[in-house]
Amino acid sequence: MSDARRLDYARVAPGVLEAMLGLERYVRSTTLDRRLLHLVKMRASLLNGCAYCLNLHRREAMQDGESPRRLFQLVAWEESPDFTPRERAALRWTDAITLLREGHVPDAVYRKVRRQFSPRELVDLTLGVVAINGWNRLAIGFRTPPEDPPPRRGDGPTGPGLGSVRSRRGRGPPSTAPGPRSSRRARGSTRGPPAALRPSRPGRGP
Asked: Which of 98, 103, 111, 113 could form a disulfide with 89 if both were Cys (CB 3.0 to 4.6 A apart)?
């Protein structure tokens, strides 16, 4: 697979970017816990093999207090004791929605997630899975390179190669051109979680 970036979709089609950011704004406005959403984003990105999104959401999750141990264990979450029943239901749902061909979201998966989430929460959770899958496909399809720009906390929703809504207007995605400090970090030892292992069919596990 080529490592060269194919095109900057945010510059080519700004409306696509705004549409995706609309999904992000909605998901962030829900009652779902931010740490839960980080797990969902990381898990979907592992399944899809999105290096950019893994790097971005690893950093954001750790800024919000998530532990490296749990992030690394997402690759085998079904065997890990470190996730709550609610988190396990969300991860199982994420697997099923992301890997539609593997069972078309079995009834058993739906029953388990409904025991942990209200109808409104489940719809919101599903949109969160839809949103990260969309970002993954844009980043992978156009080969957005993984980067480690300085944190932009409180500056609005982010997506692959984006930064904040304000900083993009008229300038394109700012995080595609990291400064000297972030470039040094990117060449250093900072890494995201390991590559995803192919999961078993959704619905297996406790």
From this structure: 113
Contacts 24+ apart (CB under 8 A), 163-168: 165/21, 168/10, 168/17
- Residues lower than pLDDT 50 in the chain: 151, 153-158, 161-206
Residue 85, amino acid: P
The pLDDT score that the predictor gives to residue 1 is: 55
Contacts with 142 (C-beta within 8 Å, 6 or more apart), sequence order: 5, 6, 7, 8, 9
Nearest to 122 by CA among 5, 36, 21: 36
Give the integer Cα–Cα distance in Å for 146 and 178.
11
| CATH, domain range 9-187 | 1.20.1290.10
Could you tell me which of 99, 101, 73 has the C-alpha nearest to residue 87?
73
The CA-atom distances, in angstroms, between 81 and each of 63, 69, 73, 88 are 23, 11, 10, 10
Q: How far apart are CA 10 and CA 172, in angstroms?
A: 6
Confidence (pLDDT) at 149 = 55
pTM above 0.85, yes or no: no
Phi, psi of 42 (to 5 degrees): -65, -45
The chain-wide mean pLDDT, for the chain, equals 80
